[in-house]
Amino acid sequence: MIRISFLLWIMPTVFFLDGLNAQQSGINLTTIEGNLMKFKTNGEVVNYLKSELDKVQQQYGRQSAEYLELKRYYLDQYWQIFQMNVYTNSLLFKEYFPGRREVMELSAKVLGTSSFQYANDIQLYTVYFGLISSPAPTGEEFKSTMALIEKAVKIGKNVTGVSKTDQAGFLSLMYCQKGDIYRKAGGRDSAIAYYRMAIQLREQYPVYDDAFPSMLTLYAQMVSIKDYQEAIDVLEYFKPAIDANYSQQKEKQYHFISQLVSLYITNNNQEDRLWEYLHRAEGLCREVYDTLSVQYVDFLLNTKLQAYKKAGWRAENFQVLLYLANNIFKAKPALLTDSEKFYIEYSLEWYYFYRSSGENELAVEFLKKADAAVRDTMVDENSFNSKKMLYRELAMEYEAQDPQLSLSYHMKGLNLEKKAKERWGEFAVHQYHEIARFYFRYKGAGSLDSASRYCRLALDEFAKVYGVRSFFYENALFTLGTIEYKRSNGSKGYELMRPHVYAQFHDSTFSPPFGGSVFEIYGDVLNDLGKSDSADLFYQHIYIRDPTATFYRLSGTVEKQQNRNLEDLYAQNNHILNEHYKRYKLKGDKMVLKGLADQLFQKNLILAMQLHYNQALTQIKTPIDKEYLTDYQTARRAYDSLLYTASTDQAYIDSVYMILDWKRSLLVENLQANNAHDSNALLDLRMKYTYKRVQTKLKEGECFVDIRLFQRSGNNRYVYTEPTYALVLVDKNSGNKIEYFFVENVADLEQFISTARYDKLSVMLAPFIKRMQGYKKVYVHPDGVFNLLNFYALKDANDKYLLNDKTFMYVNSIGGIAAPVQAGKNKKAVFFGNPVYTKSITSPASHLTNHIFANTGIDNCSPLPYTKIEIERAAEILKAKGWKAGLYSEKKCSEEVLKKEINADIIHIASHGFYLPESETTGQAYVIKDNPYLRSGLVLGDLLVNKTSLNDNILTAYEVMGMDLSSTSLVVLSACETAKGAIKSGQGIYGIQRAFKVAGVKNVLVSVRNVDDKATQLLMEHFYTNVAAGADYVSALKNAQLEMLKHPLFNAPEYWSHFILIGE
């Protein structure tokens, strides 16, 4: 929500009009003004004017024109001295406004109640009742103040001898004061109406005084509560007039432009305007105020940071926070320590930053610091919003671990809002609704009764302040519906939800968050009621309201934030898949809307982004792009060098990695902002996952099998612990709905796959095998352990391998459908195999390799004699057909040589591989544990201890990712378990095969379990014979496996099903 800081009317224009009720007195103000120049301090000025007032009172009397004129002059000077900090300076309220009341009453007696000067004095007195820092007017005060303003308006309307412009200027100020007082009394609609009347008068008769810009911004603030776009439109309409008439009044321009920035931060459109105005506002702020000023700190915290947060530019957020810490608060600590507001806001921003990074412990420390900074419970506009937000975050932070502590912070927020309401009148107490939702989530005895009671208090509050058709009222009514629905076990409450849900549904600007949105909750209710299609429609709208959300949540962020955002997305998918599983089990309904399935089965999004930005790096041209790239490459080299030293300093390695990650995010953000690549639209297309696109690519007789791993719940609807697979099949003629297949016994599934028990797997997957009947070509988009399952080895109901009559092609994305899988034109292949494994490692080169050797058992690698035959025979076959084939065996098989010979169409590596599960990373292995690409790789020979080179013959997946293999059409990893890695639901397997894909390889042939050397040698001979004959890689592998099926010794699946070809 937009941060609203109500503006004080800087002392409005006072209309002394020539020839109109002019005062004739013996006071010589010129002499008095001259004497003021002699004094050095404000106190001396005040004392002098008070002494002059005493003299005039003794000479002329208190009810004289002379006393009235000097008293008015004294108050004008007093305002100029003390108006700079109205919120905290009580002198204005002790002396200034009582003085204005005295002047107003004297003016009526001395000049008469029909004089324009009397009307002007009314205006200067009644402005007090509209100030945000003054108490809300009581019933009698409200009536008497409005009566005074009506008198002034009547005088202003009937005044003669003045221009229409001057008359309109005065009347507009009085309308604004009416608006101020209605705002104070909680009458928002009336306030807006009077502000609108004032602006319409100014539009008809322009008066460019001090009050006009403030009038516009206050009106925009009020209107924005209901309609941000109208507020923006008003300010944009008058912006040319502000630019033209206030060009020398930089402070006025700053407040006007910063208000536009605040509105654009909240509004979802026209981001180009946001950055334009943000840049201008910062320039004006630095020009008007000192960079160590309160105003500049406020701009950085509450404007610039909020704009960056909206854009998701985390790196820029970090830079602003560092600037505040190192350049402002370090130079002027009092700005932080003396301001409760700034201390809370500053601590909260660090809390948000570290929480978004996944550094929760560090984040909470800042939250505790902010809590400790709350010195009292006084309600003042400077710190009200900050305290309110602090209590909200503390309540949410402790809700799971300490519900009673969480409730105590909710209650602190409630007391704060109650005091605000008592003081300012216009505030609605929203905390009733927050507490109701807390009790709804809380599992304690009587919690639903408490939730219902607080929700009804919220409804009463919102009905009075906003009306029963307001967003807030309908939202609370929705909450009451969920409470009653839960309390009645589904028999009540449903109808109470409808108004709010459908109001949001028909609001095209509403974009629900992932997790717990009204669309999700209402979809769950519809699902329970058996209204499957309607439920799916609401589920679908969680995603499609903001089609670019996934792109912006994953791009331009550091790795931990990226993973956190991905977890949010997949948690939402998981919830809906779990609801679908429930309706399948309870009601036999296993259909899903195709448009919703598009969203639920999104996978490999991080891979799509990695591939895209690797491509973007090749198109960098501008100096600023190159600068960001150089910074990233420098940070990468620094981190890489640490990996290959003996360092075990966790804090230092972590800090270097954070810098690397930060530099990467800066580079990505810059590429996005400057379109230095083939445009973000292409990435959006790569990530856009629709079965409609799938169907356009499929031919008759082809289908697309999509697989998704999710967690289902047990007795508790919102606790997911049971892994389950959902499978769907789409063909060219699939309609609006598609059918689910669920695999529940995942433990057995994993065991059967790891032990190649395809007989058991064929029984377990029989319903889906039957569903694939009739298709000749099947594209498989796997997830989880299905990445390790070879569909060819399954048998149909007739006990025939699917290898016999189907072609399977594994893809990483929709783009892999119908993608070319043939060798390139250069016909160059390089073969690495039969490495030298002779040394028993005792003093490894680095902490990294030490841990790999200690936990994988590769420190005593056995020789691979058949790999020599394998690569020699493959090279011989290709050479016979005109290929260039490089052969690197024994000592020539090394990491250093491989990195030099990567410019080839086919790269074949026959060596030992390794994969280290996260559970086996213990002790000081934090670097490896945090990076799955360091836990898998290839062993290309004896370990080389070389402090000047990273080529130690341990080729990790992390290193592979840094290569450029975009010209390579196929990598063959003829090593044990090269398909294995860290399984990330929805993101495939983070391992060596994934690393080659990131590096740009089109197709990767990998092993899914330990490989029999002789069988592999024969399979590869058949495979390369087919490739040499011109077959594409898919056909070459299938035909090679068919040849193995004929072999008397190697016809069992464990000899030929261990290789899978993964396409684009």
Characterise the protein shown here.
Among the domains are: 620-676; 690-816, no CATH class; 832-1010, no CATH class. Helix content is 58%, strand content 9%. The chain is built from 45 helices and 17 strands. The strands form four sheets. It has a six-stranded mixed sheet with strand order 1-4-3-2-5-6. A six-stranded mixed sheet has the order 8-7-9-13-16-17, with helices on both faces. A three-stranded antiparallel sheet has the order 10-11-12. Helix 12 runs antiparallel to helix 13 (294-311) and helix 29 runs antiparallel to helix 32 (680-687). It comes from Niastella koreensis.
Please report the number of helical segments. Answer: 45
Helix content: 55-70%
Cα radius of gyration in angstroms = 37 Å
Form type? elongated
How much of the sequence lies in strands comes to 5-15%
Organism: Niastella koreensis
Protein name: CHAT domain-containing protein
Pfam families: CHAT
TPR repeats: 172-205
Could you outline the blueprint of secondary structure elements for this entry?
Blueprint: H1 29-36, H2 42-60, H3 65-82, H4 91-110, H5 116-126, H6 139-158, H7 164-184, H8 188-204, H9 211-224, H10 228-245, H11 250-266, H12 271-288, H13 294-311, H14 314-329, H15 334-337, H16 340-356, H17 360-373, H18 381-398, H19 403-424, H20 431-441, H21 447-465, H22 471-487, H23 494-505, H24 518-528, H25 532-544, H26 549-554, H27 559-587, E1 591-593, H28 594-600, H29 605-617, H30 623-643, H31 650-674, H32 680-687, H33 691-697, E2 702-713, E3 720-731, E4 737-743, H34 746-754, H35 758-764, H36 766-771, E5 777-781, E6 807-810, E7 828-835, H37 847-856, H38 865-879, E8 884-890, H39 895-900, E9 906-910, E10 912-915, H40 926-930, E11 936-939, E12 954-956, H41 957-961, E13 970-973, E14 981-984, E15 988-991, H42 992-998, E16 1003-1007, H43 1013-1028, H44 1033-1046, H45 1053-1056, E17 1059-1062
Parallel strand pairs: 2-5, 5-6, 7-8, 7-9, 9-13, 13-16
Antiparallel strand pairs: 1-4, 2-3, 3-4, 10-11, 11-12, 14-15, 16-17
